[in-house]
Amino acid sequence: MDSLGAGQGAAMRRWWRRVQGGIAIAAAVLATVALVPEVLAFPHRQAIGDTIFYAEQPLPATMPALLARSDAMLRHSALYQPGYGRRIFLTDGGWRWRLLALSSSGAFAFSRPFGDVIVVNRSDPTHDLVFNGQAIGGRRALSDVLAHERTHALIRARYGLLADLRYPAWLREGYCDVVSGGGSLSDAQAAALEAEHRAHPALLYYHGRKRVDALLRAAHGDVDRVFAEAVR
Question: Which domain holds residue 69?
Answer without folding.
Answer: 38-230
